[in-house]
Amino acid sequence: MNVDVGIRLQAYLDGELTGREAQQVAALIESDAGARALFGELQQTRTWLKSNEPELSLPESREFFWSKVEREIEPLEKTPASGGPSWLFFLRRHVAAVGGLTVAAALVIFAAVQMNVVPTGGLLEEIDNPLDEVGTFSFRSESQKMTLVWISNPFADAEESSDVTPMPMPIHLPEDIQ
Amino acid sequence: MASKKDYPSMDDVALWKAAQRGDMRAFEELVARHRDKVYARAFSMIRNEEDAIDLSQEAWVKAWQRLKQFQGDSSFLTWMTRIVINLCLDKLRKQKRERAESIENLEEESGGVERQMPTVTVNPTERLERGELRQRIDKALGQLSYEHRTVLILHEFEDLEYKEIAKRMQCSIGTVMSRLFYARRKMAALMASYKREELK
Question: Based on CB atoms within 10 Å of each CB, which residue in A43, A45, A103, B122 is the most buried?
Fold first, then answer.
């Protein structure tokens, strides 16, 4: 018997064929002894199985099995089956996530501002390093035990006159740091 | 409050509704009521006692987690059975991936020995007792490949249509039809081959 024919017989048996196809298979079963025998075998096997599913019992006591299940579900009790309204669960879950993100974003912005990465529109003043523009030179007199440091600010000088005249600023440094 | 309820006298619907509200005692009653059937389904598919116990336990934990999704479209037992079947299918797929090419697959592709099997004629005088018939069925199921066994269980015990079986087993309807055909033929041959003494 052709396997395809066998599979069609089975589909007929299981009620998976409709209309013309079902009629064709029914006619085949009527006319062909081989088809009839195979159909009978398939039908018998199905009948056996349908009404005789093996029965088994869990080989553990009710208490022991439940204790294992309970141990697993107790930590979950407060989430899926807690009985609280679902919108509250939704809020708890999502607001916490959004809140966390907001705090993280605020921290990033704050850090960026502190590092002067983000323009602040006058909130923070630019730090001038006067030493870049200041010329210094020193003079030391061993006989007088004195060190003279000259500091000149060209911008300050330029504001007063076009002549750049260094302004002497004597600083007497103690001997021990020289 | 909850402890005053008479759980054994409550029906499944009342129990799962109470369990949905967080009543663990109601859930315990459902476990006690259906644990054998859930275990039996796991064992019929896996054929290993220890794995079947683990899988049925896992199924009950999953059921608790998903209890809010259960709307009562089917009976609670049907819903539970579907959960354990899916767990078994996952495990069997994993086992199959871990195995090397099996002879079963080669047999299935070529039709195997079932292709040449003569038709089994049922002897009407042989009237088996229900218990003996069940023993034969159980033994024969254990000798089938997991693909053949699963398709039989889903079709004959779970009453699923070809389309639904194909979806669960992640294969085509044609494959389901072919597997079911060979599974039935092999089952018939095995059932006929057992002698009474072998089962005792």
Answer: A45
Residues B95, B108 within the same domain: no
Domain range enclosing B125: 102-200
Q: For residues B120 and B192, state if they share a domain.
A: yes
Task: Give the residue with greater pLDDT, B79 vs B124.
Answer: B79
Strands (E), chain A: 135-141, 146-152, 167-169
Which amino acid type is present at position B147?
E
The number of folded domains in chain B is 2
CA distance A78 to chain B (A): 8
Q: Which of B57, B108, B123 to probe the A interface (max A CBs under 10 A)?
A: B57
Indicate if the alpha-carbon torsion angle A147, A153, A158, A160 is positive or negative: negative
CA–CA distance, A132 with A148 (Å, rounded to integer):
20
* Mutation for B interface: A21, A49, A60, most B CBs within 10 A: A49
Residue B163 Cα distances to B83, B108, B170, B197, angstroms = 18, 20, 10, 40
pLDDT at B132 over 60: yes
Q: Return the residue of B nearest to A3 by Cα.
A: B115
Tell me what pLDDT residue A55 has. Answer: 87
Task: Give pTM, 2 decimals.
Answer: 0.66
